[in-house]
Design a protein that fits this description.
This is Phytanoyl-CoA dioxygenase. By secondary structure, the chain is an alpha+beta fold. It is 28% helix and 18% strand.
Length: 354
């Protein structure tokens, strides 16, 4: 297959931006990469967005907020228990996952059963949202309180993902994968003017299972003009005078280890050498992201405790609840119980296929 020419790429991006406003907003914010400029624009946008009543909740987590402002990330200790994380893992492993780089391949239920070329194995969003704990965690007062305070307005839950990072993959089949091609390279995610991600380990992660690595204090730091604005290496940061060794952290922990992170700070996943890693990621932004479903995936009752604005990308408000396979008791926001119920045919879930 012929590669895309620069002119073809230009027209493709123009067409994307015209047909889907989310792409227009996405490309627009990528024109400003200086942290100080992005902060100013974010401040203006936050004043125009719906405001939330999260000040009182945020006061309970002043320590987390202070740590986030200082380092670019904060750990949510004593929040998700190991048992809760393993419940989510058990649910996901009952559903097939797929290789996003090789969609023609057959899905699989266990990373051990994946084809050798598979490096990342993702779950479909319909299967992810069939697990009620995930939306409850995304809407938990602790996470939303911190994020809303830092945003200065109500955020949007714009992306929900869960995936395996596999070890033992075929390196030759993945030789063009940038993650493997540049193992020392750290990158920034530039998806919106302000973005915060919630990560939760669903498997036991040590140095051999591809831990997430983050360089603290880089989310508000400019890169020298001679370096790439999107990615860098620790050596390049050291040359520019930044103390990398004092700020680099490899995050290891048991299932349930959770943290909020500013992805504009340089980060990467280490390459796993002995064990697979399963992680859940929830992204909060100002605007809906073009990588998410174009329409809500599930329906929810109007009496639900979930804020309709914050959840509008994935949840559509209706008088009836679309149950899918699992019945969610929305009246118990702190409950992590899952009950099996046979839904009515008219209420069956329509799954989003990537």
């Amino acid at each position: 297959m012929k590669s895309e020419t620069p002119l073809q790429k230009y027209f493709r991006l123009i067409e994307q931006s015209i047909t889907d406003y989310r792409w227009f907003l996405y490309y627009l914010q990528r024109q400003k990469l200086e942290p100080r400029d992005r902060s100013k624009v974010s401040s203006v946008i936050s004043r125009l967005m719906p405001s939330g009543n999260f000040e009182q909740i945020a006061k309970q987590y002043e320590r987390d907020i202070h740590r986030f402002k200082t380092d670019g990330l904060c750990f949510l200790e004593d929040w998700v228990s190991e048992n809760q994380a393993l419940q989510i893992k058990q649910h996901l492993m009952s559903r097939p996952c797929f290789d996003p780089d090789r969609l023609e391949k057959v899905g699989f239920f266990n990373p051990e059963a994946a084809h050798k070329s598979c490096l990342h194995a993702h779950y479909r969003i319909g299967d992810i949202l069939d697990c009620p704990q995930i939306l409850k965690l995304a809407n938990h007062p602790r996470a939303l309180g911190i994020v809303s305070y830092l945003f200065g307005c109500k955020p949007t839950i714009s992306l929900i993902q869960a995936w395996w990072l596999r070890y033992g993959f075929d390196e030759y089949e993945n030789q063009n994968n940038l993650y493997l091609k540049y193992p020392e390279s750290y990158h920034r995610d530039i998806d919106d003017w302000t973005e915060i991600r919630l990560f939760i380990y669903l498997s036991d992660v040590d140095e051999t299972s591809g831990p997430h690595s983050y360089i603290k204090n880089t989310y508000n730091r400019s890169t020298p003009d001679r370096y790439n604005k999107f990615s860098t290496t620790p050596q390049q940061l050291e040359i520019s005078g930044f103390p990398v060794s004092e700020n680099m952290i490899n995050i290891v922990g048991k299932p349930g280890t959770a943290w909020l992170m500013n992805p504009f700070g340089f980060h990467r996943a280490k390459i796993p050498t002995q064990r697979h890693r399963l992680i859940l990621c929830i992204t909060y932004t100002f605007f809906p992201q073009p990588f998410a479903p174009a329409k809500p995936v599930i329906n929810c009752s109007t009496e639900s405790e979930f804020d309709p604005y914050i959840n509008r990308v994935y949840v559509k408000r209706e008088k009836s609840i679309r149950k899918g396979k699992w019945y969610v008791d929305w009246s118990k926001p702190e409950s992590f119980e899952i009950s099996y119920a046979q839904p009515k045919k008219s209420l069956r879930r329509r799954y989003y296929q990537p």
